[in-house]
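User: what does the whole thing look like in 3D?
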Amino acid sequence: MSTLIKQDILVELLANAGTGFEQVRVAGKEAFQAQGFPTNKSEEYKFTAITKKIEQRIQNFQLAGAFEVTAEQVKSNVFEGFEGDVLVFTNGHFQQALSSTVEGVEISPLSEKASTALGSIAKPEKDPFCALNQSSFDGGVFISVPKKAQIQKPILFLNFFKANAGQVIQPRVWIEAGDFAEVTFINHSVNLSDTSYFVNKVVEVKGGVNTQIRYYKLQNEGENAIEVSNIETDIQKDGRFTSVNISLSGEMVRNNLSINILGSNSEGNMYGLYLLDGKSHVDNHTNVDHTVPHSESNELYKGILAGSSRGVFNGKIFVRQDAQKTNAFQQNNNILLSEDAVVNTKPQLEIWADDVKCSHGCTTGQLDEEALFYLQARGIGKEQARGLLLYAVAGEVIEHITDESFRDYCIAQVQERLGSNF
Amino acid sequence: MSKDNQILEELTSKEYEHGWSVNYEADEAPVGLTEETIRWISAKKEEPQWLLDWRLKAFKTWEGMAEPKWANVHYPKIDLQALKYYSAPKQTNKPKSLDEVDPELLDIYKRLGINLNEQKKLQGIAVDAVLDSVSVATTFKGTLSKLGIVFCSFSEAVKEHPELVKKYLGSVVPMTDNYYAALNSAVFSDGSFCFIPKGVRCPMELSTYFRINAANTGQFERTLIVAEDESYVSYLEGCTAPQRDENQLHAAVVEIYAGAHAEVKYSTVQNWFPGDKEGKGGIYNFVTKRGICAGDFSKISWTQVETGSAVTWKYPSCILKGDNSIGEFYSVAVTNNYQQADTGTKMIHIGKNTKSRIVSKGISAGKSQNSYRGQVQVMKRATNARNFSQCDSLLMGDRCGAHTFPYIDINNPTAKVEHEATTSKIGEDQLFYCNQRGIATEDAVALIVNGYAKEVLNQLPMEFAVEAQKLLALTLEGSVG
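Assistant: Here's the predicted 3D structure for the full assembly of 903 residues, as structure tokens:
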């Protein structure tokens, strides 16, 4: 990609980025300049020409800035029956007035927490977009769950996106959980924009000893959303991190999910579903790094692709030399429903320890004709039978969501999709 | 655990048995690579103008290319200007039969256990032996030519069958394909050529034996196999090299063309010098192998047993162009000490109802790194394509690595593609089970490793399977728990 853009975008973004974190931003800028925008030759972005997409769709490389939303808008976008707390963000800026306070959890705008070690978990050298965010993020939130706090109700991040002054949105989230804490987050975004926008988000999650953290994410922002999201977490001894990522639409979406296992007897779980049609393009890159003995990771990503959509999956499992007795499992299944749908998948294992059990499986195909026949033979119509079988595929991922109202919402969304377009 | 260490010790201390070299007078190209070198090689081989032009074009392409960096292997930069690009045993006259071949050369092959002697028909293998850069001898030529089969050295083919060579050379692996293929196209010295005419089933296994003898030379051979419609051939390839402290480069190109209903089976037992146990010396094996199933119902099957080379970079591939064509890849890659292997395959499904099967078994020991890198690509018009891939890794010792990089790119909804991979060591429970039944740990490991590799070894022709099994046993002698 032309170096011109690389220069321009940084200058423009830095011009109106938030203040504070000067050193962090300089490190981010340097890391970005060293990497530049990925080209189609970059191995990590081989199938996702995000730079080209940004070039085509984004004209105004300025940060979009905060805007007003009403309490009504907030209320209407919360899932039916949701009992947890809601944190409202507009273009990545925390709206304290509209948000609920969560008992026992410290939540404040990132700008008030200047000593936060941003970039210490999601390292800017690893990904150019992570570096770009670190150089020029805007707004952001700091969340600290104290030691032994058991937050039973989930915390919902309700993000409103609207491209107005500029088309680039760079949210930043820092979550830290003390030892023995337990907490669940749900990330849901609402698109209020008429034009294309580019969201470049970084979430860092710092776990303590024996923390249980769940992070659920639903992406359904429609045809004009271009999004790169970097979620990275460090897990300590006895800790557990579970991610469920459901992507239903987006012009081009790239999810980088990294789990660094730093303590033994810990567990990382990653579940993902991409149910796409039209021209949607969703790319999931996951990375689990087992660095210590006795840890486990489970991964299950499922794709259903229709229209001329494209699904990309790259799952990396690293088992370092010290990480003996690691169990790592990875599975990726894809169903292609139309002529023009494309799947690129690369399950990757890199193993340096010998006493491990690692496996991955990957399949791509169609619905099982025999299963379809079985249902038809019992008087279920073909369309309905197809919907039922496809729902069964999606359900295997959705069932990992523990919060009932969010799970029901996801089920409804998936069923609506399967009913109308498939 | 101490038992393991002891066995590991034994394993790592095993020396390379083909490590000797012979001093014979050789005809060598001057050191370095320029256009002059290429003209020199071409003149030496009395090549026609078109081939020289082709080489020069490849050289021009190569000059504009950069060395690939994506493979999961690490080695010091190779100084291509410090190599000699041609080395041939000096011969005054071209030998008409084996009796006239320099006895010293024949002795080399005898020490390798390669039988160039036509008397031993029992073995029934036609051998083309390539030493350093040139083909030394080809056996059973007469028998084969009665059937219309051409099996000879590449330079001979250029002289006697220029129309065939011209038609197929570079048709499967174009000179622009990659850095080492371009280099090979520019400087290739010799190799084997094999042509099976329509409807002929080759009655015996064809075999090429490669050996690098001279120091500081690169070996760049080229193999071209053409199987016309409804023909069948099984082809074997073996390689060894003397033990030297410096690294040597081997950059070969193999091209296979299969017409309608034709079947080609290509088996390799690669045992280049892997370097000593400190990781010093050894062959850099950067090879491009590709076959095209051009006709409908054709089949290409690659089987490889990789035990040698310091660094391997090799992806035997199939382009499944004809409808209902089949591609197969069976591989056992064993790495020990400081060896690094990045090997796998590419299956490109273009035709309808094409099928491919990949079975890759990696065994890493010592401080070696073993990677599987494969691609299964289903093109848009390849309806009902089917692929099954299995790549398993066995780790022996805690300082080695096993890596898997499978790329699966599907552009057609009717494709059925499955991939599975596992990585583990030999289970304590498996060993215990064997021990319980009176099988000593060492034998049990041998049994398990053998069983693990069996699926691939079974694909080898009889004569080779024996050698491969011996090699496996040798590389992992005493074997590990």
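In plain terms: Chain B has two domains: 20-424, 426-481. The first helix of chain B runs from residue 2 to 12.
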